[in-house]
Batch of 2 targets.
Target 1
Amino acid sequence: MLMPSMRGPVLLTGVALALTCGCTGSTGTDSRDNSRAGASSPVIPVVASTNVYGNIVQQVGGGKVTVVSIISDPAQDPHSYEASTQNRLELSKAKVVVENGGGYDDFVGRMLHSAKNSSPAVIDAVKVSGKAPKAGRELNEHVWYDLPAMGKLTDRVADALAKASPADADVFRRNAKAFKDRLTALERKERQVKAEHAGAAVAVTEPVPLYMTEAMGLRNKTPADFGQAVEEGDDVSAQSLQRTLSLFAHKQVKALIYNKQTSGPPTEKVKAAAEDSGIPVVPVTETLPQGEDYLSWMTANIGAIKSALER
């Protein structure tokens, strides 16, 4: 869930709020092959629900795709976003559409349902990930923090682009492999944190980073009803808030991972309690920060969590 921040958290990383499309930064593509292919095949129009997925598509497609990311402003909430006429026009031209799914960006489904004379290949990241709700818990739809899931998504994107432009299939699959190789290197970094800090307790203001913290072997001690209320925009009960604040007063966690794009009185109190107790605050975001690509963003997140644990 995205809402404008009321005030900025103490940062352990240089990650900034995203204000532009995430199709920036190094793409890791083979520009020579893309240039040669460009003489014989058209550019593929792609629409992504957020700039996170837009950037991944750009890295796989290189110069053979034009990507429109509908959500790139951190003030835009995917849960309640209403599509504009321009969004509908862009989607009507798309050959490939990438959405998060899982109830996160339902506006894409509504647009597709109402679109006429349009039948793009639709990639649902949650479905591709194979994630399912855990017993007694709702689905954590923030699958872009799950690196193996993004590896699966990368393959699916390459397949869809190859179908749209068969002449460039080898380029797309080669770019996808290069991207996945770098994802694998990041997974090794997560395992290194796990080897050094498995079982360490952390708190989160929302379940946004939990796939990453679980891969690192970290325990989330935040009361489930606190994170759920914040994510849904509901009131946090006084009892839930007090239980969360006590994690810091009694030094029960080694870090607070704070969604800086969602801020309100309860999360501000939690952040202040962590700071007052000398517990590191690690900010994370839901959209791609300005000047970052997906891989550099995830590298920064892993590094920031690791640094916090080492303090």
Target 2
Amino acid sequence: MDRRSYLASGLLVALAGCTELGSTDEADAEDDPGEADDDNDHEPNGDDTDSETPGLTGTFDDFEDLDEWEAFQGIGSIEADTDRSYSGSQSAHLEPDEEGQVRVRRSLDEPIDVSDVVPGIAMTAEDRSIVRIQLQDEDGDYIEYSQQVLGDMPLARKNFGVTRIRGDPDLSEVIVLQVICWFGDDSDGELWIDDFHFVPNTDSGKVMLQFHGGYETHYTEALPLLEEYDLTGTTFVPTDRIRADVAVEGDRLTRDQVGELADAGWTIGSQSASGSQLSDTESYGDDLESNITDPIDWLEDEGYDDGARFFAFPGSTYTEQPYELVQENYDLAFAGNAPAQGYAGNPHLCSLATSPDPGEATELLDWTAEWGGITSIAFYQIDDESVLTALEETVSYLSELEEAGEIEVITPAEMADNYVYSE
């Protein structure tokens, strides 16, 4: 199996934790005329979109008129919901068929050129799931983008990343837009979508190395490895769990170790004070706001003012209240499950590819170099040989691609200042 076919089979989805997509391959054949193969010879666009905004950006369909949309081959249903909207008076309410899948599509009167852009939608769901956007040409070949959706949230723009190529799609002649959600065996799932939009893609692949949880191994294992290749990373620390010194028992960074990471050029960001996931907000009670905002004071007091702008949702999970608090207090935040996103249409839900296994990270980096976009690779505790091997492979190959000019390594500040899209 060649590299492109391997990637298209769903490796990148697995990297990002999107295992739900693995069960949809049988249904894919239904909407692929000609049974296009996965030998993808399409050359990605190489134009410099960083210096010039493509014309096809902003809201493309606000779902105020659903007459142009249909449930493809009767797979699920679509209807207007005037009680929920991201903008305008309504959203599109999608429900799956008895097999737990919904597919809605819009056929365009004239083809559009998506060579320099990445699609996204505002969405929410009844339960956590994976949503895919397919942009198809007249032959049914397509480029597919994916992102997770969490339940019981307000409609919010999500940053989709390219995770699959089918056939040899002509990105300058896209004629069909399709949105797919697979709820598994749960035929009672519900999805709401609004504001189908496009954001610019980057001129070349961008990669960010991240380390979540504030573990001491980020200092003992990751720091010397990154220094060997003249790279820097970002560590998102739970500030209440930082140890005063090495005499204090625990597996988290000490105050001095955090300082040495900063001295080595690392960005020191927040992962909430406790580092616990923000999906069970009732357990925090009145402490929820302080858990999210107190790290800003700690970081600024320690001299990490730049890092105090950035937040990572522990486990990429959240509910409405912590999400709103992060929006109010941080410039950029990370939560999501997809590689190679475009400019951040929502800077508070920037995407991640987490914990790649040995061998997978090199495929992930190749994919980003080929298709562009921004891939943030997150590592957690570096506590066994497999994780260390994956990190070593990532850093070594990333350095090689950077030297060859195929990938640029960026920081959260560079993303916030240069790769956020606002209409």
